[in-house]
Amino acid sequence: MIDVDERATPFIRRLCNEYNVHVSIRFSYTVPHKVGNWIHLPAHYHDERLNWSFCHELSHILLNHDENSFPSNQEEEEANLLASELILPKCHFQSVSHLRLTELKSIFYHCSYEVLLRRKSQFQVGVATIIDEGRITFRNGHPSLRYPLFPTHEEWKIICKTARYGNHLFTVMDSFRLESVYLERNGFRRVLLWTEPTTDFFIS
Ligand SMILES: [Zn+2]
């Protein structure tokens, strides 16, 4: 009998049954963790974050990572890699990964925009950038691309415009397409940007 917390999302419920794991969600938990085949998640997390954290902890279980020692960087990377497959299986995601982020969100609404953006960059040739309160916290491009470490002037223009008006934007320029998503939670502002070359402008 699988023990599933009543706060669990339908997505978490399905995976609990599929992988025979239990989940409890409590306000007293400050960080997600696992004990045996139990996954413990903080109740103050919103649904998208619960879903991702659940997949991350489930990955530690499936990869047989030792719960009595602090996970190594390599174990964390392995868990993130498997978690991205659990939350967005390649067989469902790859064929639609060219769609805009807002379209992907309407299909895979159990995922955060960040998860969608990172997963998209594994299949599509482009650069994913995340800006939190005006600071770059993530920028990663497809391995086949040579791209600048920091956003270009054109990318910054879109980032600033997105933050100023609080809107999602989609812009087609001479050599690339840009899609930005604006998010605000508890007064914390985040812009996600997907930059996709339409010519070999970026490519080495
Ligand atoms: Zn971990």
Low-confidence stretches: none
Main β-sheet description: 5 strands, antiparallel
The CATH topology of the largest domain, please?
Beta-Lactamase
The helix-strand sequence is HEEEHHHHHEEHEEE
How many domain modules?
2
> In CATH terms, what is the architecture of the largest domain?
2-Layer Sandwich
Measured as a percent range, the helix fraction is: 25-40%
Beta content: 15-25%
Small-molecule binders here are: zinc ion
Q: How many β-strands, per DSSP?
A: 8
Q: Could you say which structural class the secondary elements and strand pairing correspond to?
A: alpha+beta
Strand order of the largest sheet: 5-4-8-7-6
Number of helices: 7
Distance between termini? 55 Å
CATH class of the largest domain: Alpha Beta
Walk me through this protein's architecture.
The chain is of the alpha+beta class and 204 residues long. The chain is 37% helix and 25% strand. It is built from seven helices and eight strands. The strands form two sheets. The chain has a five-stranded antiparallel β-sheet with strand order 5-4-8-7-6, sandwiched between helices. A three-stranded mixed β-sheet has the order 1-3-2, covered by helices on one side. It binds zinc ion.
